[in-house]
């Protein structure tokens, strides 16, 4: 920021849109982003920027601003990515999927290492209206389930949600503090729910691994026949096979390089991106450019 200037709080919410998949896609395609320029102008942030900033400096400065005054879902997801995936595990042994479909809900973060752990985000901007249904769905898929929440939700969560669900506080110091540890719920896992969260290629690969073959049937009947095979498999064994398979989804050397190379403010966005090798290279080049070079 220039001097002691600060951003009017009413513009922080629009500014948070800088962490949009569309911005990343534009930069990865052409090293420029029309949307990012519009966001910076509409929020007034463009007047506070140092013209010599690189784009990575710009993203870090924006992130610092929203982390202080507008801790939205992205801040929570990015903190989980940094503190848990990259802080405790390795990109070579663990994986994260964002907005992962489980039954009638979408898990904010699915973490996969030796097992599965779903983290549901409830920021200070969120309500708790659907929390019980969401957690019930997640416990049919994942061995561990935790809610990562702001301080204003902690008391209610402790009183209302299942004791097997973990509770984690995102502190004002930007750390994750375990209020209540998650307990294994392998006994509530549903093979049907897990199966329905998989892509066709994934459940066919798992059936092949189990039987050494795939059903001889039409594509129209493949879902039913593969699901029939899974019905005869131990639930824990199937869960572990799915964890192994999902760790490979959307994984590549380019993705690992990208996540390692982007600034901390973009770790979660990089994880969720689906970019080619050339697009990854374009994005990294854009991040090192002067921010004004990225405007259209």
Q: Topology as H/E string?
A: HHHHHEEEHEHEEHHHHHHH
Any idea of the CATH topology of the largest domain?
A: Trna Endonuclease, Chain: A, domain 1
Helix content: 40-55%
CATH architecture of the largest domain: 3-Layer(aba) Sandwich
Tell how many strands the DSSP assignment holds: 6
The domain count comes to 3
Verbal overview:
With 296 residues, the protein is α/β, with parallel strands linked by helices. The chain has three domains: 9-69 and 252-294, no CATH class; 74-186, Trna Endonuclease, Chain: A, domain 1 (3-Layer(aba) Sandwich); 200-246, no CATH class. Helix content is 48%, strand content 13%. It has 14 helices and six strands. The protein has helices at 12-15, 21-30, 34-43, 55-69, 73-88, 131-138, 151-160, 191-196, 200-211, 219-231, 235-246, 253-261, 267-272, 277-288, and strands at 95-102, 105-112, 116-122, 144-149, 166-170, 176-180. It has a six-stranded mixed beta sheet with strand order 1-2-3-4-5-6, sandwiched between helices. Helix 12 (253-261) packs parallel to helix 14. It is globular and about 65 Å long. The mean pLDDT is 92.
């Amino acid at each position: 920021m220039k001097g002691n200037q600060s951003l009017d709080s009413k513009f922080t919410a629009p500014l948070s849109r800088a962490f949009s998949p569309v911005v990343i896609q534009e930069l990865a395609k052409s090293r420029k982003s029309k949307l990012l320029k519009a966001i910076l102008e509409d929020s007034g942030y463009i007047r506070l920027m140092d013209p010599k900033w690189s784009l990575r400096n710009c993203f870090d400065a924006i992130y610092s601003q929203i982390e202080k005054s507008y801790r939205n879902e992205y801040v929570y997801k990015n903190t989980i990515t940094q503190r848990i995936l990259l802080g405790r595990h390795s990109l070579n042994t663990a994986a994260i999927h964002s907005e992962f479909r489980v039954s009638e809900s979408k898990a904010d973060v699915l973490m996969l290492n030796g097992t599965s752990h779903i983290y549901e985000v409830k920021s200070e901007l969120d309500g708790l209206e659907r929390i019980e249904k969401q957690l019930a769905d997640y416990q049919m898929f994942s061995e561990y389930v935790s809610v990562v929440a702001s301080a204003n939700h902690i008391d209610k969560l402790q009183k209302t949600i299942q004791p097997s669900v973990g509770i984690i506080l995102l502190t004002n110091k930007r750390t994750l503090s375990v209020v209540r540890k998650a307990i294994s719920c392998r006994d509530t896992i549903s093979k049907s729910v897990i199966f329905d969260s998989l892509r066709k290629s994934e459940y066919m690969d798992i059936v092949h691994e189990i039987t050494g073959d795939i059903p001889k049937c039409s594509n129209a009947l493949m879902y039913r026949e593969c699901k029939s095979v899974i019905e005869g498999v131990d639930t824990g064994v199937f869960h572990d096979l799915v964890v192994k398979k999902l760790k490979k989804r959307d994984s590549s050397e380019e993705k690992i390089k990208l996540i390692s190379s982007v600034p901390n403010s973009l770790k979660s966005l990089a994880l969720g991106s689906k970019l080619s090798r050339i697009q990854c290279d374009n994005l990294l080049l854009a991040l090192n450019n002067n921010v004004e070079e990225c405007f259209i």
